[in-house]
Amino acid sequence: MTATRLDGKTTRDEIFDDLRTRVAALAAAGRTPGLGTVLVGEDPGSQAYVRGKHNDCAKVGIASLRRDLPADVTAAQLGETLDELNADPACTGYIVQLPLPRHLDEVAALERIDPAKDADGLHPVNLGRLVLGEPAPLPCTPRGIVALLRRYDVSLDGARVAVVGRGTTVGRPLGLLLTRRSENATVVLCHTGTRDLAAELRRADVIVAGAGVPHLVTADMVAPGAAVLDVGVSRTDDGLVGDVHPDVAQVAGFLSPNPGGVGLMTRAMLLANVVGLAEGVFGRPGPQ
Ligand SMILES: Nc1nc2c(c(=O)[nH]1)N[C@@H](CN(C=O)c1ccc(C(=O)N[C@@H](CCC(=O)O)C(=O)O)cc1)CN2
């Protein structure tokens, strides 16, 4: 078997076509959406992700606001930048690029974002709305994973999904999203404490690998025909390496590669959140 590719680029391009129309309508009403990014330090990976986000904005007509801060910025200075974006009407949604340098408190930074401008859906108010099933901007990678599976008609209804990784941006919110009634999956959230990872993966109809361990998922761990999404990335001497071994393509029914898969969907969903925030589709705004 050679797996059908879950193509993030094609799906991203389709989403951009829809966003372009919606951004034009907002602009015509004098409400051009603007994405703000706050990047601390000079990590090359984070710089590339932020650059990619602003390139995407240009493609659909969203305005860009970049705030690049030095690696030794203080918590107070970072807080001032976030307050400034909270108050700026040109910024309709923004993100703090993660991870932050160790001396800064990520949770404190996320809590300082106005929930009504939380383009990543990572503010506790919006994560709480996800738990409650209320409308909210959703964390971008989980939203992108669900959109990619839908685009290729991979059914989640009643499916067993094994998620590898319990982080705040992918694993935990993905578990919440997939177990909503609309998705209706059964989720096993695997992590470093999981006793027999291979056994959990072999039972799964869908595997989402986001542990950041090169080639963690090998062909013998995958049920024939399963859908496998590679969300992990490690920078090695051999370049970027995903969590999924290339041989998995011989066993899986569907495979989302890395690069070329979920990462592009993450960026597309960020823009979808920014447009949704500007349109006011996420219900009542959070506390100011
Ligand atoms: N504030 C946030 N920080 C981080 C998030 C996030 O969602 N919000 N996720 C990751 C990084 N990330 C977005 O910020 C991200 C990761 C990967 C890609 C991407 O386009 N991947 C490409 C390959 C890219 C490469 O060559 O390096 C692909 O899959 O084709 C985009 C965004 C951590 N931080």
UniProtKB/TrEMBL annotation:
Keywords assigned by UniProt, alphabetized: Amino-acid biosynthesis, Histidine biosynthesis, Hydrolase, Methionine biosynthesis, Multifunctional enzyme, NADP, One-carbon metabolism, Oxidoreductase, Purine biosynthesis
- UniProt key word NADP: yes
Pathway given for this chain reads: One-carbon metabolism; tetrahydrofolate interconversion
Q: Which reaction does it catalyse?
A: (6R)-5,10-methylene-5,6,7,8-tetrahydrofolate + NADP(+) = (6R)-5,10-methenyltetrahydrofolate + NADPH; (6R)-5,10-methenyltetrahydrofolate + H2O = (6R)-10-formyltetrahydrofolate + H(+)
Per the database record, which ranges form the Tetrahydrofolate dehydrogenase/cyclohydrolase catalytic domain? 6-120
From which domain of life does this come?
Bacteria
EC number assigned by the record: 1.5.1.5, 3.5.4.9
Q: Which residues bind NADP(+)?
A: G165, R166, G167, V233
Which HAMAP family does this UniProt record tie to the protein?
THF_DHG_CYH
Q: How the protein assembles, per its UniProt entry? A: Homodimer.
Which family does this protein fall into? Answer: Belongs to the tetrahydrofolate dehydrogenase/cyclohydrolase family.
Q: What is this protein called?
A: Bifunctional protein FolD
